Amino acid sequence: MLTEYAFWLLSFIAIFSGIATIISKNPVYSVLYLILTFFSIAGHYFLMNAQFLAAVHIIVYAGAIMVLFLYVIMMLNLNQLEIEKRSNILKMLAVASAGLLLVILSGAAHSADALTANPNKVTPAGMVEDLGIALYRHYLLPFELASILFLAAMVGAVYLSKKNLNETQA
Amino acid sequence: MQLTNRSIQVVKKELTLSERLYFPAILKGMLITLSHLFKRKATIKYPEQDRELAAVYRGQHVLKRDDAGAERCTACGLCAVACPAEAITMESAERKKGEEGLYREEKYAKIYEINMLRCIFCGLCEDACPKEAIFLTDRIVPSSFTRGEEVFGKDILVESMTERVDVSKRQTPEVLSFKNDKKHKHNQTYLDRKN
Amino acid sequence: MTDSMLIYKIILCVIVFAVSLGAAAYMTWGERKLAAWLQDRVGPNRAGPLGLLQPIADGIKMIFKEEMIPTHSNRWLFILGPSFFMLCACMTGVVIPWGAGWQSGETLYPMQVTDINIGLLYLLSVVSIGVYGVMIGGWASNNKFALLGALRASSQMISYEVAMGMALIALVMMTGTLSLKEIVAQQDAGFANVVYQPLGFIIFLICAFAETNRAPFDLPECESELVGGYHTEYSSMKLGFYLFAEYINMFISSAIMASLYFGGYNFPFQHELGLDGNVLTAVQTAVFFGKILMFIFLFMWIRWTLPRFRYDQLMNLGWKVLLPLAIANIIITGFVMLFTGKLG
Amino acid sequence: MEILHNIYIHHYLALSVALFGIGVFGVLFRKNAIIMFMCVELMLNAVNLALVAFSKMHGDTDGQIFVFFIMVVAAAEVAVGLAILMMLYRNLHTTDTDSLNELKG
């Protein structure tokens, strides 16, 4: 029972703060609401017994990615945003296309009703070991490729954020 | 151009490995602070404990009375003249009949004020005084909230006969013995003269 | 989970909370006393015997001071900042095993609020979100110094988190578990982990100093450049929260270091003493607190010895020294495990 | 916490779809590049949620592994993307996507 209430509460928080993220005028508020969304998603992971993933999710998303966002917004001093003027037609189109997508996806999700949890195959606690084995046995190549991706991203980020490119070439 | 031979050439030499690791230096510093943990504390708990003062410490002034209780000051003004900070002012008055027990000489100081905010505690007033009347003592001048309170009048400066202020530390043995010599008229109180 | 166990856990939670708050309060006293002693002074001695009531006096002063919120600040975020920082500081205490557990009849009541099997990751994640308290507070103050202090603090904390996590990975490789209870229990049999992981311990120690914003890494609040750093605009109890949370962080990180690297509540020859289970637990808890006190002393001792780093030195140390050392530590640990055949 | 008795996969899918829709709407609705970027993150997270729910349903770890890789990609993307945004802001002093209508910087 308790977990059900937790599910509804977390879902409510996730959707509420998700909406707040996109309608907040101030980007700092947007970031904070998005962090709240991520926390509630982490809560969902906990509910689904994916504890390791929940912790990693918080460390990576809340602890690193959103800090970077906040950092950029604070550094650029974007809190006094010019009022966004987007034409009404575009707004209507945005609502329409997002709504259409929503309808299609929820229709697809609804048809998944027959899929229920398979109680025989519920993995026991100790997700860390299972994940580790899966990651380093079956998915070793993608894992290594991911680290190469990281390296490339790191080099790219450092190169892009250099103050003056001409100076470094000289 | 070299003016003196005290100039030293600064050499920025390469740090050795142990210096570059920093840990030995950090450990050394930490041992130094640790050794201070066990040293005698320099602090004293002031109102309960008094710090030992030097024998020649110059603190708050006192205007002395003689042994019979008469004020020694005769308002000659030499202290005010000697004062480099111009902290002393006084107003003299003539002694009336019947006041011999209060004032030693025919002239006395009606008002005698020392501005403690100006005073530099040099002790020149003490040196200038021909009547052995003003002395600096080892008492610490109390602090106050207003400037007016720091101008000390006779009510504070003149010693009371019940709590006499010992200034023997400030006097050489010769002066002390001279002062006790009643042969000199200078040292006689009015009671001595009466007898 | 039975009802009695649930009640017990709630009580334990409250006790852990109260102990960390009380410890933090008395650490302010200890800090001032120790600073005084290291400088040949006496320290607080007026409020109560030995100044022991000083934290209470400080607390009363903090609460009754005038509360100021700058006019152009962001009011809600201004309040959220210190609250969040305090929350994160208090959250870490729940995974630390304070002792083996109380045997009452059939059931064993563990001295740990919750033993989640990803305890170490939980710690890291709480530490990593602690940055927000500082950033939000500094930004909401609408003050250049506060913002710069906040940016410094956050970049410092993020940088040192990396090396800290790397240092922990070597430990996790060795122990094969992420649960703090397990790690502490493993140290009962053999030596404490610091014997096997001296380099990892030193890296972790330095990172703990940086994470708690303690000298010589107290750049975020360096008075000579940034006035008060991220809490320049704060006064009254909101400032108190920031300062208090720093001490709680210090207490908790001392507890973590004690349990990860110094055997936690275990002490040598504990089973040879022939003590009864519950008595042994009490002694173990006392020993654990002794270890924590030792680390707190180290924290304070270093603070009053070493001067503050320059900012570029700080970043160089974090990225160019500690991170490579931590990676080297992982590699060395891996090789040793390979050759000693401890690989599972 | 082991089993959610009355919460089935379609609950999670509905939540995931809702979050994804919010993300899409945000990307279309807002003009600020940083907010759009954040909405992309939100969409990625909606997908992650669905993957974890599937992983839970099937009782194996593959879904979670995919979530890992999505996180990796998201982190790399944010690092590069924010660097690009910083460059953009340095050159144009705005993060409004409508002002990026020239190929020359």
Q: How would you describe this structure to a colleague?
A:
The complex is a heterotetramer of chains A (about 170), B (about 200), C (about 350) and D (about 100). With about 170 residues, chain A is mainly α. Helix content of chain A is about 75%, strand content about 0%. In chain A, helix 1 (about 1-25) runs antiparallel to helix 2 and helix 2 (about 25-45) packs antiparallel against helix 3. Chain A is globular. Helices cover about 65% and strands about 0% of the residues of chain C. The longest helix of chain C has about 35 residues, at about 5-40. The relative contact order of chain C is 0.14. Chain D has helices at about 10-30, 35-60, 60-90. In chain D, helix 1 (about 10-30) packs antiparallel against helix 2 and helix 2 packs antiparallel against helix 3. The interface between A and D is large, with 86 and 76 residues.
Protein traits:
heterotetramer; A: mainly alpha; Four Helix Bundle (Hemerythrin (Met), subunit A); 7 helices; 0% strand; globular; D: 105 residues; mainly alpha; Helix Hairpins
Summarize the structure.
The complex is a heterotetramer of chains A (170), B (195), C (344) and D (105). Helices cover 24% and strands 12% of the residues of chain B.
Helix content of chain A: over 70%
Tell me the distance between the termini of chain A: 67 Å
Major beta sheet of chain D, specifics? none
Q: Gyration radius of chain D, to the nearest Å?
A: 17 Å
Overall average pLDDT of chain D: 79
Q: Globular, elongated, flat, extended or rod-shaped: what is the shape of chain D?
A: elongated
The second-level CATH architecture of one domain in chain A is: Up-down Bundle
CATH topology tier name of one domain in chain A: Four Helix Bundle (Hemerythrin (Met), subunit A)
Strand content of chain A: under 5%
Name the average pLDDT of chain A.
Answer: 78
SS summary, helix count of chain D: 3
Beginning-to-end CA distance, first to last residue of chain D: 53 Å
Question: Architecture of chain D in CATH?
Answer: Orthogonal Bundle
Largest interface, with counts of residues having CB < 8 Å to the other chain, equals: A-D, 86 and 76 residues
| CATH class group of chain D | Mainly Alpha
Q: What's the number of helices of chain A?
A: 7
Low-confidence stretches of chain A: none
Question: How does the SSE layout of this entry go?
Answer:
The complex is a heterotetramer of chains A (170), B (195), C (344) and D (105).
Chain A lengths: L1 H22 L3 H21 L3 H26 L11 H23 L16 H12 L1 H21 L4 H5 L1
Helix pairs in contact in A: 1-2, 2-3
Chain B lengths: L16 H5 L1 H15 L23 E3 L14 H5 L5 E7 L12 E9 L8 H5 L5 E3 L14 E2 L1 H4 L15 H8 L9 H5 L1
Chain D lengths: L8 H21 L3 H26 L3 H31 L13
Helix pairs in contact in D: 1-2, 2-3
